[in-house]
């Protein structure tokens, strides 16, 4: 259980890192819309972020409503709240 | 401030933010201030100012090029993905380093 939570925290931290990278390159692209290196950077980290969010959703429940893909249970409201140790 | 290579000069105001205690006579009473204040000599900062040839009152932002980026963990920690934008401000005034 404890190890599981460690993994969850690690994945959550990774999502924060790649989300920040996406956010920051967005600012650069606003002023450099045709910079091919920056576009490649954006595509790379956007993909990493989407993948990490999907993985998180699969294991622990959705962090954002965009990655919520409920099958038999609506985890959005049933997973722990932030003050209960949840992350979203 | 004690680590500054050269102390900001009070005379020219280089590297100093406008101070609230600065005398305002020069604006309201130009004639008087010319008499009461000594002539200001151009200071060393002005001679070495790389922007001195540019028109005043215009703002300039050098163009950024996509070069090196931090790994995602460092980027989040520093608040930027670009090493050239990693500029921690210490709130000690504008000391050139």
| Biggest sheet overview of chain A | none
For the sheet with most strands of chain B, the description reads:
none
Compute the gyration radius of chain A: what is it? 15 Å
Oligomer: heterodimer
The two chains with the largest interface, and their residue counts, are:
A-B, 16 and 10 residues
Q: What is the helix tally of chain B?
A: 4
User: How big a fraction of the residues of chain A is strand?
Assistant: under 5%
Count of helical stretches of chain A = 3
Average pLDDT taken over every residue of chain A: 92
Distance between the termini of chain B: 11 Å
Q: Which stretches of chain B are poorly predicted, pLDDT < 50 over at least 5 residues?
A: 1-34
What does this structure look like?
- The complex is a heterodimer of chains A (88) and B (97).
- By secondary structure, chain A is mainly alpha-helical.
- Chain A is 67% helix and 0% strand.
- In chain A, helix 1 runs antiparallel to helix 2.
- The radius of gyration of chain A is 15 Å and the shape is elongated.
- Chain A starts with a helix and ends in a 10-residue tail after the last helix.
- Chain B has helices at 25-28, 30-36, 44-47, 72-78.
- Chain B is mainly alpha-helical and 97 residues long.
- Helix content of chain B is 23%, strand content 0%.
- Mean pLDDT of chain B is 69; it is low at 1-34.
- The A-B interface holds A 14, 16-18, 20-21, 24-25, 28, 31-32, 35, 37-38, 41, 45 and B 64, 66, 69, 72-73, 75-76, 80-82.
List key phrases describing it:
heterodimer, A: 88 residues, mainly alpha, 67% helix, B: mainly alpha, disordered N terminus
What is the strand and helix layout of this fold?
The complex is a heterodimer of chains A (88) and B (97).
Chain A: H1 2-31, H2 36-60, H3 75-78
Helix pairs in contact in A: 1-2
Chain B: H1 25-28, H2 30-36, H3 44-47, H4 72-78
Short description:
Chain A is mainly α. Chain A has helices at 2-31, 36-60, 75-78. Chain A is 67% helix and 0% strand.
